[in-house]
């Protein structure tokens, strides 16, 4: 990356043209000097919010043919037609929502008349004027008989399991200790007329929105234009103005694209200064990753976790993808589950119209990894019976088998994976310093990692270590001590490296052991699946009820197990890459992604 200072004249005037040219280049990652604040930005944000709301309203009517062919204005031919269309859509929607609210309230009143009958409110008022008061109650059926004995209480019907009771009294304050039902404020005829009238108005308003939806693209284009203006204004007011004549921006451009930006600057009369970022500025420099196309599959995971290598850090995407795929296969490790995951991804992909999305490629890859490991270990829905089918049994690797395999060798294999993974991290770090003696220190760490591997095998698994194991620590430690700090005086550098070496070795020991989680989690997945199988059909199926229960246990149990396995992938599969491996490769993921100011052409 190259650091670029860019200068443009007339900072207080409309800079739309110049900044649009810069945005169409789409090459300069701008680091704003200040938060972008201006009334025009506030207005644009408000308009964008309105446009998004208007488009969402019209989306509800997409694909529906209007029943009314009444002509409406072609807003595309009107001056500021998009604004007029937007206001019409929002106004009609507000009116429709108010009508819907009124219709709901009227519907409740209609329901009251439906349950209590066509009572004349005028008659009720007439009775009240003569000193006789009627009050309505809903009473539980079990209490109805006891209160019906009163002379001034009448049970007139039932509704929703409650008795409808009328209290007739000359005492206006007389009440029953039950839920009282108020009389409506309007007559049944008025309610019915208002309901019909509002329903007709609502249908008219919905028909209008249905017809307006044909012009939705006008709002979509307007939204795109406002978003473009917002980008321009945000960049404009994020720069610094000098003496009301020049505005300046600071940013970064890929080395091979600098000439493109400077040529455009010369053509448009912009000023610029190009320089290399200082070492103390590396934290501010965005990271532009250039990887083979096949590594794009890991982007969803990296983006989800917010993992971006720093500008001065190595790119670990390809190694991350390979081992994350491998770890997923081990952690889930059931060919049956892998088939289900693959089918679910395929169905989701089909439902989306087979749109090419990175996520689906990742899901397919991980599903195939799960299937392969499941076949190698003979695991199919945790059922040993299926694993013993002759054809499938021939595909197993005996020592790795989930049923009858050598658990000691499986655990040793997990430690071996860890040692290889960490070794790759040190080799990558060494390659970064290939022209420095620091690469020798990384070779020393590779020796220490393999010494730790043999030590872990001996201490955890009881496997005898080779006789040369001590020399791995001695030789590796010597290389680390001698070549880890070449910029310091020899004695000081050696003492500094030796002081940090014990703690780093202990951390490396724990990192290698950490890979046993692959075995533990994978084993727990198999055991849970086998347990659900035993719960469902362990004692056989003798009745229809037991058959239905077995199916429910199998479906719910395996669904739960697959969910837990997927969570384990996110927790353990990511952790081993992000902490153990990245730690040995000295990658802290402290970077920010290269995100240039870009406007569609």
TrEMBL record:
InterPro entries: V-ATPase_116kDa_su (IPR002490)
Record has Cytoplasm as a keyword: no
Chief location of this protein within or outside the cell: membrane
Keyword annotations of the record: Ion transport, Membrane, Transmembrane, Transmembrane helix, Transport
Subcellular localization: Membrane
Keyword set includes Iron-sulfur: no
Membrane-spanning intervals of the chain: 319-348, 360-383, 410-427, 434-456, 468-491, 544-571
Membrane topology listed for this record: Multi-pass membrane protein
PANTHER family: V-TYPE PROTON ATPASE SUBUNIT A, VACUOLAR PROTON ATPASES
Assigned protein family: Belongs to the V-ATPase 116 kDa subunit family.
Protein name: V-type ATP synthase subunit I
Protein source organism: Carboxylicivirga mesophila
């Amino acid at each position: 990356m190259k650091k670029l200072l860019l200068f443009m004249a007339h900072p207080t005037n409309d800079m739309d043209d110049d900044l649009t040219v810069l945005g169409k280049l789409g090459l300069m990652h701008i680091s704003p000097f200040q938060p972008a604040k201006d009334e025009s930005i506030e207005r644009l944000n408000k308009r964008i919010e309105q446009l998004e709301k208007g488009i969402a309203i019209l989306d509800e009517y997409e694909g529906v043919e209007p029943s009314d062919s009444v002509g409406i204005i072609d807003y595309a031919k009107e001056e500021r037609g998009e604004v007029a269309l937007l206001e019409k859509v929002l106004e009609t929607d507000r009116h429709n929502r108010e009508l819907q609210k009124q219709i709901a309230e009227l519907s409740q009143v209609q329901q009251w008349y439906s349950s209590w009958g066509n009572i004349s409110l005028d008659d009720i008022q007439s009775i009240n004027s003569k000193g006789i008061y009627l009050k309505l109650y809903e009473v539980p059926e079990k209490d109805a008989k006891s209160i019906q004995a009163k002379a001034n209480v009448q049970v007139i019907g039932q509704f929703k399991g409650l008795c409808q009771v009328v209290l007739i009294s000359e005492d206006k304050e007389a009440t029953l200790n039950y839920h009282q039902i108020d009389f409506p404020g309007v007559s049944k005829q008025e309610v019915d007329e208002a309901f019909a009238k509002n329903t007709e108005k609502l249908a008219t308003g919905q028909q209008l929105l249905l017809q307006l939806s044909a012009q939705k693209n006008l709002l979509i284009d307007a939204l795109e234009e406002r978003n473009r203006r917002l980008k321009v204004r945000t960049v404009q007011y994020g720069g610094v103005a000098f003496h009301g004549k020049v505005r300046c921006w600071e940013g970064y451009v890929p080395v091979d694209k600098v000439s493109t930006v400077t040529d455009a600057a010369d053509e448009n009369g912009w000023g610029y200064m190009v320089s290399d970022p200082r070492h103390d500025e590396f934290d501010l420099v965005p990271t532009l990753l250039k990887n083979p196309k096949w590594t794009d599959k890991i982007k969803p995971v990296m983006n989800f976790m917010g993992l971006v290598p720093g500008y001065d850090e190595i790119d670990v995407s390809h190694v991350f993808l390979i081992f994350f795929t491998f770890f997923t296969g081990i952690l889930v490790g059931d060919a049956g589950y892998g088939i289900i995951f693959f089918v679910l991804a395929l169905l989701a992909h089909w439902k989306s119209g087979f749109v090419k999305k990175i996520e689906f490629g990742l899901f397919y890859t991980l599903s195939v990894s799960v299937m392969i490991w499941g076949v190698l270990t003979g695991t199919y829905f945790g059922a040993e019976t299926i694993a013993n089918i002759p054809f499938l049994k021939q595909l197993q690797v005996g020592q790795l088998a989930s049923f009858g395999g050598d658990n000691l060798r499986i655990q040793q294999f997990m430690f071996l994976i860890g040692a290889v993974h960490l070794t790759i991290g040190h080799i990558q770090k060494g390659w970064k310093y290939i022209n420095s003696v620091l690469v020798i220190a990384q070779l020393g760490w590779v020796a220490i990692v393999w010494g730790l591997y043999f030590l872990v095998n001996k201490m955890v698994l009881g496997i005898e270590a080779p006789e040369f194991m001590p020399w791995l620590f001695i030789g590796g430690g010597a290389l680390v001590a001698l070549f880890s700090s070449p910029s310091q005086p020899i004695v000081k550098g050696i003492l500094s490296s030796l002081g940090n070496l014990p703690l780093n070795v202990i951390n490396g020991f724990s990192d290698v052991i950490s890979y046993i989680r692959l075995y533990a989690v994978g084993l727990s997945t198999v055991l849970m699946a086998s347990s659900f199988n035993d719960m469902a059909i362990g004692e056989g199926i003798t009745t229809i009820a037991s058959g239905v229960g077995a199916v429910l246990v199998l479906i719910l149990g395996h669904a739960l197990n697959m969910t837990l396995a997927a969570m384990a992938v996110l927790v353990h599969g990511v952790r081993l890459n992000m902490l153990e491996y990245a730690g040995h490769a000295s990658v802290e993921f402290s970077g920010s992604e290269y995100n240039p100011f870009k406007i569609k052409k």
